[in-house]
Amino acid sequence: MEKNPTISRRSFVKGIAAGGAGLLILPSGALFGQTAPSNKLNVALIGTWGRAEAHYEGLKKENVVALCDVDEDHLAFAAKTFPDAKTYVDWRECLDQKDIDAVVCCTPDSTHAFIGVWAMNRGYHLYLEKPCGLSVEEARLVRETYLKNKGKLAVQHGTQRHAKPNFNRVRELIQDGVIGDLESACAWGDRQLRKPGYPPAAGEPPKSLHYDLWIGPSPHHPYNPDYFSGSSGMNCLQWNMYWDFGAGQVGDMGSHTMDLVWNAIDAKLPVSAKASGEAFNPEVTPVELTMTFNLPANTWRPAIEVSWYQGGAMPRPPMECVDLAKIDHGALFKGSKGHLICSFDDRLILPSDDSADMTYYKPRPEDQLIAPLGNFQQEWIDACKGDLKTSCDLEYGGDKMEMMLLGLVAYRVGKELDYDGAAGRVTNSDEANELLHRTYRPGWVLNG
Ligand SMILES: NC(=O)c1ccc[n+]([C@@H]2O[C@H](COP(=O)([O-])OP(=O)(O)OC[C@H]3O[C@@H](n4cnc5c(N)ncnc54)[C@H](O)[C@@H]3O)[C@@H](O)[C@H]2O)c1
Question: Is the model's pTM score more than 0.90?
Answer without folding.
Answer: yes
